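From the pipeline queue, job 12 of 40. The input is one protein chain; the requested action is below.

Action: predict structure.
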Amino acid sequence: MKQVIDTNVLLVANGKHEDISPDCMAECIRQLKQAQKNITVLDDRFRIITEYCHKTSPNQPKGTGDVFLKWLLRNRCNSSCVETVAITDNGEDGFEEFPDQSLQD
């Protein structure tokens, strides 16, 4: 299975998102651990990685989101873990490849 992981999943897994339930945090942790068994899709211009790095701490991992980012950085060239794709900026603060523009806000 291939997936793109929203930055908020990493933040919730780290406990750094306001108003989250313990169940939600546990589910985000479970999803990130499961993601390491699948293929995470990243963009070829490192926009996703850059956003993750601004929100987490891969050099001193403390939470599951931090640990996931560190794993992702170590495996970004491993095609069994990560697929890199080109994306096209549509000039309207979104991307052509994203299926639903309203979900990008």
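Job complete. DSSP finds four helices and three strands in the chain.
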